[in-house]
Design a protein that fits this description.
This protein is an alpha+beta fold. Helix content is 60%, strand content 16%.
Length: 191
């Protein structure tokens, strides 16, 4: 492509280069719109579905560890009712930033729906996933804004097992999340 552009008249070459640069910027914007949740900036559910399938395939093929975490904000309806939807959205954004600050570059966080988030932890055992969740919980507790509004999360953790599917892993993590909620909230449970 560069060779083809190089033979053009210099003035026209600059216009073509500017146009290509603009197109690349537009492609980036479109990609973000297609893969990111607009409220939190985390990946969206569709992107999560695609990446989770790829990570499962890597775990199956390479016998690599893979863990999955589902988190849910405790009593989020009460937050909405007390502070309003605008403030609740701001708190969702803040929690997303805390999650981003806590994960590794290889981890994949996504907004799963409403006030639920998922984090795919590639090459991570259940033991290491539990340590991550302890760290996340501590960071949430120390965050001044989340602390001010009493934001805590409960979560379910699971690790890839032979011949697992995305549906099976999500079901196990969701079951563990339910146990965390039923067991008093503000905790992570493994399954």
């Amino acid at each position: 492509m560069k060779k083809k552009i190089a033979v053009l008249d210099p003035k026209f070459r600059k216009e073509v280069k500017d146009l290509l640069d603009h197109m690349n910027d537009c492609i980036g914007v479109l990609y973000d719109a297609a893969t990111r949740d607009e409220k939190t900036g985390l990946y969206n559910n569709k992107f999560f579905d695609n990446i989770m399938e790829m990570e499962l395939e890597k775990a199956q093929r390479g016998k690599q560890k893979l863990s999955l975490v589902i988190t849910d904000i405790d009593f989020f309806k009460k937050v909405n009712d007390t502070y309003g939807h605008v403030k609740a959205d701001e708190l969702l954004e803040r929690l997303a930033k805390v999650i981003m600050k806590t994960i590794r570059k290889s981890d994949i966080p996504a907004r799963f729906g409403g006030e639920e988030f998922v984090v795919i932890l590639p090459e991570t055992s259940l033991t290491k996933a539990n340590k991550f969740c302890t760290r996340l919980k501590n960071v949430i507790h120390k965050d001044k804004i989340l602390k001010k509004f009493g934001i805590t999360v409960s979560g379910g953790i699971t690790e890839y097992k032979a011949r697992d599917t995305k549906k099976k892993m999500l079901a196990r993590a969701d079951k563990a999340l339910y146990k965390a909620k039923k067991g008093g909230r503000d905790q992570f449970v493994s399954n």
